[in-house]
Design a protein that fits this description.
Chain lengths: 260, 208, 94
């Protein structure tokens, strides 16, 4: 939109609103691209981890080596597709981090420190929380000739890191909650901060998975896995919705001159 | 303090005792909607913990659970319950004092409430220490797994509650006109931590 | 500070203390039997007392008695859910 055409349409009030909306959208386009990565990536994530990768719902922790090898071999084909897909697509998850950080920078009373912490901690968390699992299972699926003891170890490493990579996410949730509480502009609603504290608790109740091979607090347990996953999904849906509203409500004046 | 608050405050004694509801005009949501999302959600989450304790593991070996329970100190449990419900009293009183404009008194009540909260944590730590010294760890059996997890998650909630109380205290000291709403928000959370403990105490320590 | 302590919240506190001590007393071993026996009636009584204590805190300390009806129903519903869930286990499974 050049300044000449902007002056033209200023004389016609009926089209001014649609022009502004279009201008607003085009200046926020980069944020919208980032936002779309969330529903796309998480649907892909679901496809990969649930249908193809077979790690959600998780296989049992207490399996013998022979059973583990059998599990891998029975699902080898779909696993191979799953983990190659994840290896290709995981990087796109960082788009959402960039977006959240951009919105966090809009908060008042909050310096860049918390936003950068969020960015850093999610960059670290992606490895144990997501990629490590896929790498271990990919290795097991692509190398069926390996010693069963090695396959069993890959299985344990994959699942334990996936469910048990606690600290990074505790930090993520806490930093996010603190930023929202300190923010006077209300970029994100306070209830999202409270939900983030639930997220911290889900990581705490996942701590025992390192000890137990069965029951409520094992990596396939009702509390450590299922309740944790449900809370995570609810939080993620709320986050995506709140991000949508935050971008939409962001005043144009806030966008830097570079984006004009 | 505006007229509505004053009227509500005057009616509060009779209502609190009778447990009666007021008519539409005087209904007041304590705190704000956000904290109630948090509190009700947390209540439901704890219900899932309780369901897991009761149905999934206790059902498998009830005798084991009953026998293991003997190793818990009911006395320590009772003392902790009394400590926490007293702290709740003080936090509730600090809200009332704030409403009446007695900010100094409100702050003192808050400190008492928080102090009792810390007392709860100290006693709980001692209780854990004495269990661990007897060799009863989280992996001893299913009962102790739930014991440490339920009390552990609750302790985390107490810690969060203490942080909230600190925020309330700084509101009372730091601002010229402390917001009653903020006090109500923090108190609502603290009371939830209190009554969740009542159920944990009953389930783990007393009920056979 | 004393005027506040003499108010209705003190009576709530007193009821909570008495209820706590009562449920503790009920939970003590009264029989001469050496083994810690399961006792459904005592257990349900203790659970009921705990639920009532929760309701006291919710209604009085948390001021839900003056809150909108939806909140009152939600809290009562949660209490009923927990009572039903736990007592059904004890009543029907054991």
């Amino acid at each position: 939109m050049t300044s000449a055409s902007m002056t033209d349409v200023a004389e016609r009030p009926s089209t001014r609103r649609s022009t502004e909306t279009h201008a607003a959208k085009s200046r926020k386009r980069d944020q919208w691209i980032c936002w779309w990565s969330l529903p796309i990536f998480y649907n892909l994530f679901g496809l990969i981890f649930v249908y193809l990768g077979k790690v959600m719902p998780p296989p049992k922790p207490g399996l013998t080596q022979a059973e583990i090898v059998e599990f891998i071999q029975a699902n080898a084909n779909s696993m191979q597709i799953a983990w190659v897909l994840l290896a290709l697509s995981l990087g796109f998850a960082s788009l959402s981090s960039g977006l959240i950080v951009t919105q966090m920078r809009r908060m008042s009373g909050v310096s860049a420190a918390l936003a950068y912490t969020y960015l850093a901690v999610l960059a670290v968390a992606a490895l144990p929380g997501c990629l490590f699992c896929s790498l271990m299972f990919a290795l097991a699926a692509f190398r069926p000739d390996r010693d069963p003891q090695i396959v069993a170890m890959l299985y344990d490493m994959g699942m334990l890191s996936f469910v048990g990579s606690l600290g990074c996410f505790v930090t993520q949730y806490l930093v996010f909650a603190i930023a929202i509480f300190l923010d006077k502009r209300g970029i994100f609603p306070k209830w999202l901060a409270y939900m983030s504290i639930w997220g911290v608790v889900t990581e705490l109740v996942a701590m025992p998975i390192w000890i137990f091979r069965g029951g409520t607090y094992a990596w396939d347990g009702l509390i450590s896995f299922y309740l944790g996953t449900i809370i995570f999904v609810i939080w993620e849906v709320c986050l995506v919705t709140c991000l949508y509203n935050a971008i939409k409500r962001q005043p144009l004046e806030e966008l830097t001159a570079a984006q004009a | 303090m505006n007229d509505t608050t004053a009227a509500t405050l005057l009616q509060a004694p009779q209502l609190a005792v009778a447990g009666a509801t007021t008519d539409r005009a005087e209904r007041h949501l304590p705190g704000d909607a956000d904290i109630w999302v948090f509190v009700i959600g947390d209540m439901l989450i704890f219900s899932v913990y309780f369901a897991a304790y009761i149905f999934f593991d206790r059902g498998q070996d009830h005798e084991l659970f009953v026998a293991s329970q003997r190793h818990l100190s009911q006395s320590l449990g009772v003392i902790n319950t009394l400590i926490l419900l007293t702290s709740s009293l003080f936090v509730a009183l600090s809200v009332h004092a704030t409403r009446a404009g007695d900010f100094g008194i409100a702050s003192r009540f808050l400190s008492l409430g928080g102090g009792f909260g810390v007392g709860f944590l100290l006693l709980k730590s001692y209780e854990w220490y004495s269990k661990l010294s007897s060799g009863l760890t989280i992996s001893t059996n299913a009962f102790f797994m739930h014991y440490y997890m339920l009390t552990g998650v609750h302790v985390f909630h107490v810690l969060i509650g203490l942080v909230f109380l600190l925020v309330l205290r700084s509101e009372l000291h730091g601002t010229a006109r402390p917001r009653v709403k903020l006090l109500e928000i923090g108190a609502t959370y603290w009371h939830m931590v209190d009554f969740i403990w009542f159920l944990i105490f009953a389930l783990l320590y007393l009920m056979r | 500070m004393t005027p506040y302590l003499r108010g209705p919240l003190f009576y709530t506190w007193l009821c909570l203390v008495i209820a706590t001590l009562l449920s503790w007393w009920l939970g003590l071993e009264h029989d001469s039997e050496p083994h810690h026996r399961a006792n459904t009636a005592v257990t349900i009584a203790i659970l009921l007392i705990a639920i009532i204590k929760c309701r006291f805190v919710i209604r009085s300390y948390m001021e839900v008695d003056r809150a909108p009806a939806w909140l009152q129903w939600t809290c009562d519903g949660w209490l009923l859910l927990n009572f039903g869930m736990v007592s059904s286990f004890y009543w029907f499974v054991l």
